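User: Modeling request: complex.
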Amino acid sequence: MKNKVISYLCLGVPREMIYAAGFIPKRLFGEPKPVTKAQHLFTNYACHICKSVLEEAVDRKIETDGMVMTYTCDAIRGLSYRIEKERLFPYFYFLIRPQNKEVSGADEFFSKELLDFKRSLENLCEREIRDEDLRESIEIYNKNRELMRKLDEMRASGKARPKTFYKFAIKSLTEDPKDVNEELSEFVKIGEEFDTPYKIHIFGSVISDTQIFSEIEDMSGHIVSDDLCIGIRPFLGKVEDGDPILELAKYYLFLNDGMLSCPYMTESNRVFSRFEFIKNMISSRGAKGVVFMVQRYCDPNLWDFQFLQNRFSKEGIPTLFLETEHKVAEGQLKTRLEAFFEAIGG
Amino acid sequence: MEKSKMPKTERSIKAISATKLVYPALKNYKAEMDEGKKNGVPIVWCGGGITGTEIMHAMGMLPQHIDNMAAVFSAKQVSLPFIEASEATGIHHDLCSYYRTVFGHVLGTGKDMKGIQSVYWPLPDLLVGANAVCVTHPIGIRFLERHLKVPTFIIDTPPIHTRMDKHRTEKPYMEHTHIGTDYKHEVEPHYVSYLVDQYKKLVDFLEYHTKRKLDYKKLEEALYLSSKASELFFKIQDLRRAIPCPIGAEDIMSLVGPMFIWPGRKETVEIYEKALLEVEERVKNKEGVLSDERVRFFFEGIPPWYSLGLFNYIEEKGGISVIESYPLEFCYVMDEKLSPLENLAYKALKYLYNYSMHERADIALRCAKAYSINGCIAWTTICCKIFTTFASFLRDRLWEELEIPTLILEAEQSDPRDYAEAPVKARIDAFMEMLTK
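Assistant: Request completed. Predicted assembly structure:
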């Protein structure tokens, strides 16, 4: 079991490399409480995740041996420079990554950036990160993806609670994957009975208040599918065999199955792929409506929303827009969800 | 259509006559675009700062930038109905107001509005986007692509990693005396080849869709003119170190337009040559915008284009913006030793906003010394993460290292609904009072 932790923001950071360096990669989601200092040190007009992570870091509440971020949006890029300036973490690395996977040579470019990241990690852990270390790490994370996809199918068919799915999703992104895999392997053998009437798909951005998944269940909602980066997205596809750096570059750019890029990616078919993915999920898993849950000021997701909402509307699929900051499941939002469930019917 | 009521905002008064050439040149260009549209000359809408417009000019195309189109609507005080039409389709209010404005235009908003025909841009045949300034631009271009259904090309410009900021530790920022973005900075070869390959693909894309062939001699000419215009613009900027400062931001924010839209056309060089002569004359005669400069400002961010008169307001109070970061971004002096596409690659990579915030702040700190600055005004442009996340960063660097105070103001670049003139002026008054006591 590894003890040292390196925190990271966003799915674009290859956790396999951090793990191969001897650290547990721990994703940060921000805390579901208001911020004050971050508004002064950063801005009010960025998502709560960025502001909250900065606030927690300034208050020295993040216990970690380092922090890794990558260029997945302009707010995160801005935050990275503030973190560097204030030296808020004992180790910090900002990973540059292409944003258009259609560009030929994007994977080669990204491989070179990953090699620099590897060198930086080697300096930190004071040893070489060998190809076999990376391959071992990739195997563990691929196993984790496989188990999570199994659990995803179980939550869709009522053999696992959605909140259990999200519990394991978050554990997979924040804890030692070997331990998570052990626990997960045991769980998928048994499962749990679950049956609530209001089947929905959730799409949107990262959510810092993960309590919402339990709240939805308490309201008799059943999240049969999602395309969230704290839901199924980290577990789609697999890193292939071959040169580990190049394969990691390909995976983190192309996701291999080519279905679900983060909305900051700029390839021509991305938003159409997202729409098709959601549509397929709805038809195969029987969702009656889609809930768009987005952090305020998450521009890439908000750009997608206009297109997706209009397409769902044309298809006669009900949508609900929920904009969140530090909390999701408070008063009005809860009421709106309940009204939505009533409208879509069980 | 019924015109939405615009909040009362102020246009600016310019100091030199060359600035007054910009708007007529823009109207002429619009007329050329209209004529071109009728005659099959490709119109290209670009978004993302550096998008290889020199290539388009060399191929006889007519590029226009999203930012400029929106800024012109805004400066003409007509952006609001465009924005409202966009939002009616489901576009969120927090998203980039440049795209909210231009999408309103795509929807056909305001075409019968009085006085708008001179800037009512013809719709494009092609779209080209880049992320040299922000992620929003290429996403916004993809958004427009879905509605306009025209061929689209996106250039992926990776930001310069801070590991290449070696000179920051090896040589303090003070050693760089030049202003502008083309100073020596290490750029690793894989960044350059990544961009050069993409520019080759851009040429292929433009040739394929327009059936026009790029003549590299013409591209060299366009790059020469682009470089020449940049040199002239930098000279004008250098002259603003004089006390009193010969021209303020109200002129520079207009003069930047030609460099943005027409790098590679002779009109830009001609306007800048005239501007330079006037500025030189003013410096020689010690003629400033203000005879008694009480505060010399560094201006950071995009101004609210619908209220450029704010610069005149600051001048009435005895303050003047003597250097601004935004207009510096579009200029790049070409290196004769490099090939045309390598030069374009470097221009994109060495774009001001493609550097780290440390570098962006360094430029302000260099300016502070070179331009005898004693205050900074930073606009936190609400819809733009590039600016809103930088304002506080710059404020702290300026204060910690030089004890120069910064006033942070909030506004939208193109959406006047998020601008509150009275509180903005009250804050400027208080800041001026503090600085002049």
